[in-house]
Amino acid sequence: MFIGGRWVDSEDAATLDVVNPANQEVLARIPKASREDARKAIDAASEAARVAAKLPAHERSRILLKVASMLEQNSQEMVETIAKNVGKPVADAAVETARAVLVLTFAAEEAKRITGQTIPLDSQPFPPGNQNRLAFTIREPVGVVGAISPFNFPLNLLMHKVAPAIAAGNSVVAKPPSEGPLPALMIAKLFEQAGLPDGVLNIVVGPGETVGDEIVISEKVNAISFTGGSETGKEISQKAARTNKKVILELGGHNPMIVLDDANLEAAVSSAVSSTFTFSGQVCTATRRIILSEKLRSKFMASFDQAVAGLKVGNPLEQTTNVGPVISRKSLDKIEGLVEDAKSKGAVARKGGNRLVSEEYSRGNYFAPTVLDEVEGDMKIANSEVFGPVAAVMKASKEEEFVDAANSTTYGLQASIYTSDLAKGIKLAKEIKAGAVLINDRTTLRWDNAPFGGVKMSGMGREGVSYAIAELTDLKFIVVNLG
Ligand code: NAP
Questions:
Q1: What pLDDT score does 206 carry?
Q2: Are 159 and 36 within one domain?
């Protein structure tokens, strides 16, 4: 663990085995933090908050740029660590690493642009004397940011919290996922080498229910930036309310892809494959439901089946692998349960539909790329986030059916619409309840400097470097009476 600028063991010497989901090999044995360790990390961050707030913007920017540059130099090691730790194919892990370099670079730039504005008080006649008052706002760091992140982008989703927090002059207590902690520990070393003052970044790995919980309930933590499941997020939000701290929640999704009659078939099929099966569907923005026009149906399905059959399932360390394992046996069980429920209610598995048990895959957590057709709203898979390599295909004909189907879940993260009629696409986009709608593009797309976040059970607040900085700062209003 990295606490107060030192690498330390846990208070009670407990350890955690980090396992490769592709073969169950133990990759590392690391300290497993207790609630007491979390308190120490919070204390260290709390003491360092003043130091962080006083670091000038050029220094915060220099450190972030230095980390970006060191990460770029060490990217091969990071890519392999991500691939082994969470089973992400190396091609995707390389994209994640390159994006983390970008996030750090954007944060270094934004650190120098954090600014307020002057407010023309003389636009109102009272109280008298406003023409003699100078008023302006400044943005101040909130103090200590608790950053809790999930396994699926173990580097970049943590960077989306840590880099803006530090850019804004905060200190951080980070709790990476128990199943994917190694990238976070690696990046902490780079912050240390870049000269970040002691205690400005602290990393404790341990169970969410104790270590995460302590960060959420602590009076010394001023904001929680959480990415993870919607149920966890709801619980965190309720607990954080007791100390009235700011909460930014980036939660689950059930992202619909609408394919209208006039869609470009080739583009739609390619998007459906990529956004359903990338990282075995373990992406919050993955396409969970393909809502398909009746008219295009047979052509789309023939082409989709063929593309899915061509996906290469295998070892995440191989460049050509498209689909690797899922994170855990528990996750495999959940995916299997949702697929079985759908099949029992009439869905048809055109491809896959089962876990892979042959000798080649049995030691890993592999589920076959699955195409479930004839999915209906009463099946669990139509409403629960499957977090696995499963496409659920539904049908619609009229415009309002597409919109109703898209809006039928409790989630609202991203959606996509495939059509060659831009006006129709924009009209539907306005009716869909989601944080983002992509017309003729994939649900999985996210740009690291653009606003990102969900509505309904998909979250609140926005990330995307400058947007995260706005969330992790307080606006202060200052008035000077010149009279
Ligand atoms: P998760 O089980 O909710 O865990 C996320 C993090 O929260 C982990 O670090 C976990 O620690 C911690 N945690 C668990 N219970 C906690 C508690 N009671 N208090 C404080 N922290 C707690 O999610 P996951 O399975 O890792 O990730 C998958 C989910 O994340 C999916 O629903 C996905 O859609 C969502 N996600 C959303 C976004 C987005 O930007 N909207 C991006 C990626 C993923 P442990 O690891 O120790 O349990």
A1: 98
A2: yes
Q: Is the CB of 412 under 6 A from ligand 1?
A: no
Q: In this structure, what are the phi and psi dihedrals at residue 447, rounded to the nearest 5 degrees?
A: -110, 135
Q: Which atom of ligand 1 is nearest to the CA of 207?
A: 47
**Token duo for residue 412:** 């609202």
360 is catalytic: no
Q: Looking at the domain assignment, is residue 6 inside a domain?
A: yes
For residues 46-74, give the mean pLDDT.
98
Average pLDDT, the chain: 98
Both 101 and 8 in a single domain?
Answer: yes
Q: How many structural domains are present in the chain?
A: 2
Residue 383 and residue 307 share a domain:
yes
pLDDT at site 74: 98
Its domain, for residue 340, covers 255-448
250 has catalytic annotation:
yes
Give tens-digit pLDDT for 407-454. 999 999 999 999 999 999 999 999 999 999 999 999 999 999 999 999
CA of 285 to the centre of ligand 1 (A): 14
| Residue 93 located in a structural domain | yes
Residues 419 and 442 in one domain: yes
The verdict on residue 139 lying in a domain is yes
Answer whether residue 453 is part of any domain. no
Q: Which of 227, 231, 332 to mutate to test the pocket of ligand 1 (most atoms within 8 A of CB)?
A: 227
Q: Return d(Cα 316, Cα 20) in angstroms, integer.
A: 10
Distance from Cα 227 to the centre of ligand 1, integer Å: 6
pLDDT tens for each residue of 90-140: 999 999 999 999 999 999 999 999 999 999 999 999 999 999 999 999 999
Whether the pTM exceeds 0.85: the reply is yes
For 270, other C-beta atoms within 10 Å of its C-beta total 15
Catalytic pick among 284, 385, 463, 471: 284
Q: What tokens appear for 227 in the block?
A: 């990415």
> Which of 205, 218, 186, 163 has its CA nearest to residue 76?
186
Are residues 201 and 279 both part of a single domain? no
- In this structure, are 193 and 240 located in the same domain? yes
Whether residue 140 is found in the same domain as residue 289 = no
Q: What's the average model confidence in pLDDT over 292-320?
A: 97
Which ligand 1 atom sits closest to the C-alpha of 385? Answer: 32
CATH of the domain at 340: 3.40.309.10
Q: What pLDDT does 99 receive?
A: 98
Q: Is 221 exposed, middle or buried (0-12, 13-18, 19+ CB in 10 A)?
A: buried
CATH assignment at residue 186:
3.40.605.10
Task: Identify the three-state secondary structure at position 445.
Answer: coil
Statement to judge: residues 331 and 421 lie in one domain: yes
**The pLDDT value given to residue 390:** 98
Q: Edge-to-edge, what's the strand order for the sheet holding 459-460? A: 6-7, 2-3, 201-203, 171-175, 144-148, 223-227, 246-250, 459-460
According to the model, what pLDDT value does residue 290 have?
98
Task: Give mean pLDDT, residues 347-358.
Answer: 97
* Rounded Cα distance, 394 and 176, in Å: 36
